[in-house]
């Protein structure tokens, strides 16, 4: 410890690069500090540090991390507690550039597996960044000393040691996440694709603020016909709406809560923090949001179940384009989701290609079947469930044709759900077998796609490998900018960066093997789950979060090869 203090006083007033001399490990009594990487400039990315707290000093009760999901929950809580302590004890801006800032990466409303806080046998490790202070490019050694010897110890003591945490909140956090994971595990055995607990708060503050709305909000209340009661390990008996497997429609007038419910189901593949309002909204973990995506790239995807007999003999069995239409992009999105094992599709009419979803009788009379290459989703959705076990939840506001193929219809009326299945089927006429009336070829269930990635390189010309996440929805991979704006279940910057690094891992380890794309990506995800996020980076970082297989595949599928 005193060695670091002496070093900071010795380099005070010197050129910024003299900070490089403090890299190393230092004993601080309650914890060990490791200065892992020192920034070369006050405007560069902040320096990386780690603190290691012995288990006996951290004082975390064993039952708080006795299972994998409890461990994830506790690591998440500690990261948030450390961030709160930073807000309380760190002065912030000192000098120029990023000087004076201490930061730890945390999630938003979701609880994700991260590598910012790692609980292991014998210790708690926290990875932070620190902006070493300077005036221009002259070291402010005394300010750095205050950061290392007054501010950082307070962050460790109040953010990472159990004695200073709110014990009830820590236990509630772990219990809530455990209940969500358990509830999600009940879905398949109960033949459900989703569950929404009574009392859930679904509306968000805004389209860019994922926190719960608080003013004038209507808590969710289940219609009696869809009510299910489950018993959770910590909360006990919980009642809510169980959405069974099959074809479910969510209907209603504009601004009555249809898309709000669907959005809650989209994020129900993740666990949420207590107080989010969606703690007991869970969805099949393989569920994928499907939409039209004009202009996206498609590489060798078999879209023939939906789009065939293209003009000029264009191939739709291995369809490739750099500028997809709404219908071809939505068809590709579905096939790619199925390729990665999706068992539930989530679709909103508002973000779908109209000609892909349905063709009314008048249009069918004007444009004959042999002149129309598109098979509407309406004519496949029933087959996908009965022959492939793929369920679909669709928000519908203006197309009643889907009543005929639905298993249930949920009407949202002023954010209150009603089961109107009987009325919808009566209106449709249940004897009209839509899916059987067109003589379609069976859905091609072979997913053995291999993608030629030989031209894909993370290098920028002659320069070194360049892999980065520019935003939650933007990846820079060498010369390729991957646009993930419409991959709506990607929720965290740490996931996006992990996706970028996992693409590189896949290229290095599995792309040359005789594996399908799905097999190679699945092995990549399994490696990360088994060995940890650290296998993705050549140096220690704390800014990664685990993505799903589906978002990893979505990124590769959108690369313009």
Write up what this structure looks like.
This protein is an alpha+beta fold. The chain has three domains: 2-165, no CATH class; 187-446, 3-Layer(aba) Sandwich (Rossmann fold); 467-557, no CATH class. The protein contains 14 helices and 27 strands. The strands form eight sheets. Strands 1, 2, 3, 4, 6 and 7 form a six-stranded antiparallel β-sheet that branches. Strand 26 and strand 27 (480-483) form a beta hairpin. The longest helix has 23 residues, at 167-189. The mean pLDDT is 92.
What would you call the quaternary organization? Answer: single chain
> What is the percentage of strand-forming residues?
15-25%
Stretches where pLDDT is under 50 for at least 5 consecutive residues are: none
Mean pLDDT over all positions: 92
Query: What proportion of the residues is helical, as a percent range?
Result: 25-40%
Described by strand count, sense and barrel closure, the largest sheet is: 6 strands, antiparallel
Number of spatially distinct domains? 3
SS content category: alpha+beta
Note the overall shape: globular
CATH fold node name of the largest domain: Rossmann fold
Number of helices: 14
Task: Tell me the layout of helices and strands.
Layout: H1 2-11, E1 24-27, E2 32-37, E3 47-54, H2 55-58, H3 68-89, E4 102-103, E5 110-111, E6 117-120, E7 123-130, E8 134-135, E9 138-139, H4 141-160, H5 167-189, E10 192-197, E11 204-206, E12 209-212, E13 227-232, E14 236-244, E15 247-251, H6 258-267, E16 271-272, E17 281-283, E18 288-290, E19 298-301, E20 319-321, H7 326-339, E21 344-348, H8 354-357, H9 361-366, H10 381-388, E22 391-396, E23 408-413, E24 416-419, H11 421-428, E25 467-471, E26 474-477, E27 480-483, H12 493-509, H13 517-531, H14 549-557
Parallel strand pairs: 15-22, 15-23, 18-21, 21-22
Antiparallel strand pairs: 1-2, 2-3, 3-7, 4-7, 5-16, 6-7, 8-9, 10-14, 10-17, 11-12, 13-14, 19-20, 23-24, 25-26, 26-27
Helix pairs in contact: 1-4, 3-4, 3-5, 12-13, 12-14
